[in-house]
Amino acid sequence: MIMIGGVVRALVVALLLCGAADAWTGEIRGRVACDVCGDSSVGPEDHALQGAEVAVLCITKTGEVFNYQAFTDSKGIYSVAETMPESDRWVSCLARPIKSFHPHCTRRRDARSRIKFAYNLPSGYFHTVKPFLYKPASAPIYCS
User: Which range is the signal sequence, renumbered to this chain (predicted)?
Assistant: First the structure.
């Protein structure tokens, strides 16, 4: 997913050089982790969830809806990005976890976990979403 961000940035530079200065690029990043002890925070006992699926839905100034799907990398990080005309840029987005494919950490910490936010950043900047947490079916003994 991080490579996509580099491709998007290259496209923006190309568009700017070609005179399409009204192009806008937005990016959303976040993390997914296994909350091993179920304490609702990311601590030293917790670990990144590779391959977790996240959906991001964004609405533009013109009311168009974009639905993105992302998977986390080995560090548990996901990213979605889009380049579009400034007049069509995102104004509001919603991120939500879909599924963890980790064999021992598949239960969402909060079954209704989703984060809605306004996207009012200038072109080339990114919004960071707070981490989504999954938990194991049973916590290890050291968590007691």
Answer: 1-23
**Identity (one letter) of the amino acid at 79?**
S
Nearest to 133 by CA among 30, 61, 28: 30
Domains of the chain: 2-139 (2.60.40.10)
Residue appearing with tokens 């950043």: 121
Q: Which helix (H) or strand (E) holds 26?
A: strand 23-34
- Which pTM value belongs to this model? 0.80
Give the Cα separation of 78 and 134 in Å (integer).
Answer: 15
CB 49 within 8 A of CB 42: no
pLDDT tens, N- to C-terminus, the chain (144 residues): 444 555 445 544 444 444 455 899 999 999 999 999 988 888 889 999 999 999 999 999 999 999 999 999 999 999 999 999 999 999 999 999 999 999 889 888 776 689 999 999 999 999 999 999 999 988 888 887
DSSP H helical ranges for the chain = 2-17
- Which tokens in the block code for residue 85? 């005309």
